[in-house]
Amino acid sequence: MEESKGKEDPRIAGISSSIRVIPDFPKPGIMFQDITTLLLDPKAFKDTIDLFVERYKDKKISVVAGIEARGFIFGPPIALAIGAKFVPMRKPGKLPGKVISEEYSLEYGTDKIEMHVGAVQDGERALVVDDLIATGGTLCAAIRLLERVGVTVVECACVIELEELKGRVKLGDKPLFVLISST
Amino acid sequence: MSAPKVGEDPRIRDIMSRIRVVPDFPKPGIMFQDITTVLLDPKAFKDAINLFVERYKGRNISVVAGIEARGFIFGPPIALAIGAKFVPLRKPGKLPGEVISEDYELEYGKDCLQMHVGAVESKERALVVDDLIATGGTLCAAMNLLERAGAEVVECACLIELPDLKGRERLKGKPLYVLLEAH
After folding, report:
1. Residues of A with CB under 8 A from a CB of B
2. B107 is known as an active-site residue
3. Which domain of life does the protein's organism represent (chain B) (predicted)?
4. Does some domain include residue B28?
5. Are A97 and A157 in contact, with CB atoms under 8 Å apart?
6. Looking at the domain assignment, is residue B1 inside a domain?
7. Which is nearest to A38 in space by CA: A8, A60, A59, A14?
8. CB A117 within 8 A of CB A98
9. CATH label of the domain that carries residue B114
10. What is the pLDDT of chain A when averaged over all its residues?
């Protein structure tokens, strides 16, 4: 059951209905929120980007960081519209230059996220973008990476939040803005 | 050493100057064309997108297919600007729904690209986008996926071409448009 956050903008219903739920992916019991069907609807995709751009365009944000790979779909259009740089945050070994890494916990084991050295400067204001927040582990790692080099993370922005997994709690005092909350 | 294509638009030189070459990545002897530095310059990034949009707007293109993962950075802004859907083409196991798969050859071994069933319809006109064309193997696989679903590939579009690797010849006669070449 999906509901939108706060006072519902009329565009949100269209965005919500364009998302496809796929049961048992990547494993049994998981109801996967598939945003690829949103991308097939040019109006829904445009509305999604516009909702973020309207929120961030006057907030002096100079960096939009997007988490590989679906954050690469939503981050760049936002960055372009607000005049910010786009910084891809990637799995290990993908970025060709010198990187800084941040490890984070998975259900079993750990993973790492990386960013190029020099991509961002001390004092910049950043947005972190991904399609969805689940446990918040990846987003937290992305925030830590940016803060380690002196960047202020203004907000995290996702299309969907899986409320039950309490990612918002894991982000602590870092604000989170989502278009759709899924329970 | 990079060079712009014939009939150079003045914006291209600026984009070219933002590309960083990283030697010996992913392995010794390879001069990797790093586009992440273009993304750090909002004007250069915007100019790159605009160059593609100006070319493809008004040509009845209803699908922009982007190849994981750097095609996800350039494809969506183009799709949004020309009113087309965006279709991600991904490595195996990433797309949650029913997929069609296309195998292709690597220097050593094989790889596979996948697209969701139903993402494109018969007779749609498609663009395939990636950051760079090297041997053309991935782009060829992408074209095959779209054609198998009944779409017509109008053109392949990349920022950079490595002409020494002759990827252009692997595109089954389909046109290729690039902003610049690198040797």
Report:
1. 20, 22, 25-26, 32, 34, 36, 39-42, 45-46, 49, 68-70, 72-74, 76-77, 79-80, 83-88, 90, 93-97, 116, 119
2. yes
3. Eukaryota
4. yes
5. no
6. no
7. A14
8. yes
9. 3.40.50.2020
10. 95
